[in-house]
Amino acid sequence: MSHDFQIFLLLTVVKIAVVLVITLTAVAYTVLLERKVIGRMQNRWGPSRTGPFGLLQPLADGIKLFLKEDLMPLAVARPLYILAPMIALGCALVSISVVPFGALTRVHGVDIFQIADVNIGLLVILGITSIGVYGIALSGWSSNNKYSLLGSLRASAQVISYELALGLSLVGVVIRAGSLNLRIIVDSQVGNGFLSWNFFGGFQFIAFFIYLMAAYAETNRAPFDLPEAETELVAGYHTEYSSMKFAMFFMAEYANMITVSCVATLLFFGGASSPFAGWIHPFGPPALQAIVPVFWFVAKILAFLFLYIWVRSTLPRFRYDQLMSFGWKFLLPLAIANIIVTSFVFALRG
Amino acid sequence: MQLALFLIFGALAVAGALNLLFQRHPINSALSLVVVMMSLAVLYWSLGAEFLAAAQVIVYSGAIMVLFVFVIMLLNAGEEERTSGSRAAYNVGIPGAVAIFCVLAFVFLSEGSALGTANVGGRLANGLDNIAEVSSVLFTKLLLPFEVTSILILVAIVGAVVLARKEQ
């Protein structure tokens, strides 16, 4: 093995480890953020006893989930029952590997703010998300429980339906950038600060709202959380899961929220670029210049996560027929119209 | 590296295909088919056809097979019984399968220069790998077949809607 390859291998492994640890920590603290914010919105405190401001709550939850007894009903389809949470969590975590977290910064020829720079990064994310459905579908089927089965049937139908609107809403952005590479998509939104972002300068705000609604449905979050509607389905597809297997579904849901926020940031809000890029020249030592974009990226992700939580505590759940007709009769035609208008504009501009 | 990928995922695809035939429960067969398709996607990618790999995953594994699994779950299909099969299946099926395999192998070998060739574990030579190249070929040279296929799919969708429609 050559020396360059060894450095590449080492740095890649380090990157994967660091991103994995940060993502899992972010997942744990997103749960805390959600409980705190919803608490405040409902005029109560939320978790506040474990550590200062309840900051050690995720640790306590983790220990609790680890130490709980792992129950497995007798009549489950064993291999699939065990495989399902792994598929869900695996897919949720893998898709973050193509996300660029900061500006292109090479150390020994390896970009340290992105695990893998893939030409078709956007399609990779869409593909991995579409595989994630198997986790939900199989968990419900293998549990041998009618609530689980109904929950997973709902989830699969919902995810398949909204995947179309989600994919189509991104086409306008791809037309503007002329590429599926996430770095090139981000670079196409740099120039005049936040005015060049696809949301403002690209006139993709309709696409953004389609994406946002479809993404909420894809991640099974309120107001589209029918697969786990407590009043009807106990807990939906993970009714029969306990201990770490349940925790894996739980982490997958929050990791998916983070991925969706990453994609929204990259595609519509300029990724890691600052809202004043092009107006204020970057200053300070090179290390600072490399870190500041990461800060902007994290700030944007946090804003999206806050929006998720805000929506959950504000909007009531849709009825099932409303969900389906909203997806097929409203979002899908709107997404197609957006593609037609965007491509016309870009064709006229040449 | 590429040779290792080819060997691992080629073996996985063959194992998945055999498992598809030998499993008795439809959901296990469907999942084996997913494994086959994912392995094929990896093989496409190792040949350099990124877009084809992504399309394979999104369309086949992510949409079509999810629908298969969905329908199996919805109908709650049970285990199938093993039968020895009809005589017609043996008399026509096996020669038919061999014939189709021979025709496909012949076409791929004789049209190798037009379709692109690769050594074991190598990249596809003179094939189209870039999305821009693929789409420009799709919308110029292959425009008619491409549009005819879309109309065919549209007809299928309309047919499905007509069949599923409730009588007024």
Q: Can you tell me about this structure?
A:
The complex is a heterodimer of chains A (350) and B (168). Chain A has 350 residues and is mostly helical. Chain A has one domain. Chain A has twelve helices and two strands; from the N terminus they run αααββααααααααα. In chain A, strand 1 and strand 2 (110-111) form a beta hairpin. The longest helix of chain A has 39 residues, at 3-41. The mean pLDDT of chain A is 84. With 168 residues, chain B is an all-alpha fold. Chain B folds into three domains: 1-80, Four Helix Bundle (Hemerythrin (Met), subunit A), CATH 1.20.120; 88-128, no CATH class; 130-168. Chain B is built from seven helices and no strands. Chain B has helices at residues 2-22, 26-47, 50-75, 87-110, 112-115, 131-139, 143-164. The termini of chain B are far apart. The mean pLDDT of chain B is 82. At the A-B interface, helix 4 and helix 5 of A face helix 2 and helix 3 of B.
